[in-house]
Automatic annotation (TrEMBL):
Keywords: Kelch repeat, Repeat. This is Kelch domain-containing protein 10 homolog. The keyword Repeat applies. InterPro entries: Gal_Oxase/kelch_b-propeller (IPR011043), Kelch-typ_b-propeller (IPR015915), KLHDC10 (IPR052125). The keyword Repeat applies. Residues 177-205 are annotated as: Disordered. GO terms for biological process: positive regulation of stress-activated MAPK cascade.
Length: 443
């Protein structure tokens, strides 16, 4: 049994002991209880996991994360880790906020005790906006790409690696050596191997990153002036880069260069969803996939929602998660496109290429938010730019002006978009009653 379950069992045992030792008090509480005191499992409903008190965040910047956009989050069964972000209207300061309201900081949220903690980590990456984060295993955090301010003036192309069990110092993987061909290669194969040498990707932001086994793949992105759909691969054991696809050699059927798209790895292919440039966004009716073995792009036409016969609107700056229990199932949340900020949630079955619109909406129209999913298929959404009406077609990092109807948030939401195992539902109930009991005793 993993540590999170052991911890929850201890918390539950402590709660039961307190209940037994205060039976008369609990009887009084029970007599005054309502249906709201009983835990109800509510899938397909966004629940507020944590609401940041902005006044407290301003007063105690080391205790609460400020509202932000362009950040990333990852999670394991117990913790959510957040890196970076941007807020041009930031107030308050600490020693990790750069001069232009970029948050060069790592936050860790305890999903049991519902508390944020700011980590004191050396070598924190300087490129705090529109980077890519992954969690390898349960404890190895990686950060790649991103930009400082002014956006695009300086972007990253080193991989930063942090062991979350130690939380001490990022290791920087420069990956200066390129992956080379095997001995004995000749002719076209040797020429291809020669082309791969020195193929470390240039500094970009807004790219997508996926990890499979010992390889990290970087797809697309922008320098702030030029957009790309290059596919680069980093071997995590040798720290060598190779170029799998050069978008300068754009051919029929290849996806157009873009940024702020999302990508997943499934059965030897990298699937790319959405994204755009400063001037446009790309459709989700046709999905591009990259074969990592043949290094060839393919385009697949999807089927619309069976009830409404509609497709999700084209978008960028959206959230995407891949269900841990069924990797063929993807969910997209919100985003921006065509002049509208979105609050819809869609499911895509990669095996059938079938879209389904889910019967829920996000609490607000939002883009440039961060999403992640736990090993138990619990989806989290943190921060972003919210909009009460229609919003801009782009984000502040590309130079567009925001309307008065937009603001950044630091709220954390969660939901189950699949039905988890009964054990997970029981653990959610334990956390609910533990939190309620703690608040009752202290409140």
């Amino acid at each position: 049994m993993s540590n999170p379950y052991k911890r929850l069992k201890l918390l539950y045992s402590s709660w039961r002991m307190n209940n037994d030792s205060n039976s008369s008090e609990q009887n009084d509480i029970k007599s005054n209880s309502t249906s709201e005191d009983v835990y109800k499992f509510q899938p397909f409903k966004l629940c507020l996991e944590y609401k940041t008190d902005i006044k407290k965040a301003v007063k105690y910047p080391n205790n609460f994360p400020m509202p932000r956009s362009g950040h990333r989050i990852v999670c394991n069964s117990r913790y959510i880790i957040s890196y970076g972000g941007y807020n041009p209207r930031s107030v308050g300061s600490n020693n990790r906020v750069q001069s232009n309201e970029l948050y060069k900081e790592i936050w860790k949220f305890d999903c049991v005790h519902k508390k944020w903690r700011l980590l004191d980590v050396a070598n924190t990456p300087p490129y705090a906006a529109s980077n890519c984060c992954t969690l390898i295993g349960n404890n190895i955090l990686t950060i790649f790409g991103g930009t400082s301010f002014p956006f695009g003036e300086e972007s990253g192309n080193d991989l930063y690696v942090l062991d979350m069990t130690e939380e001490e110092k990022f290791t920087i993987v420069t990956g200066d050596q390129a992956e080379r061909g095997a001995e004995g290669e000749a002719g076209e194969e040797e020429a291809a191997a020669q082309e791969e040498r020195g193929s470390k990707p240039p500094g970009r932001y807004g790219q997508a990153v996926v990890v499979n086994e010992n390889y990290l793949y970087s797809i697309g992105g922008t320098t702030g002036f030029v957009y790309s759909m290059d596919v680069h691969r980093l071997c995590l054991t040798t720290h060598r880069w190779s170029t799998l696809y050069n978008s300068d050699l754009f051919g029929p059927g290849d996806p157009e260069p873009r940024y702020r798209h999302e990508a997943v790895y499934f059965q030897g292919h990298i699937y790319v969803l959405g994204g755009g440039t400063e001037a446009r966004v790309f459709s989700l009716e046709d999905i591009h996939s990259f074969d990592t073995s043949s290094r060839v792009w393919a385009t697949s036409h999807t089927s619309p929602d069976p009830l409404s016969l509609s497709y999700p609107a084209p978008r960028k700056c959206h959230g995407l998660v891949q269900a841990a229990s069924t990797p063929s199932t993807l969910f997209i949340l919100g985003g921006v496109g065509g002049g509208d900020v979105l609050d819809d949630v869609w499911r895509l079955d990669l095996l059938r290429l079938q879209w389904t619109r889910l019967p829920l909406r996000l609490p607000n129209k939002v883009y440039f938010h961060a999403t992640t999913v736990s090993p138990q298929d619990k989806v989290y959404m943190f921060g972003g730019i919210t909009c009460t009406t229609s919003g801009p077609d782009d984000d502040s990092s590309s130079g567009s002006n925001e309307t008065s109807a937009t603001e950044r948030t630091a709220d954390l939401y969660s939901t189950y978009l699949t039905i988890p195992r009964l054990r997970e539902i029981c653990l959610e109930a334990v956390k609910y009653y533990y939190k309620k009991h703690t608040f009752d005793q202290t409140g």
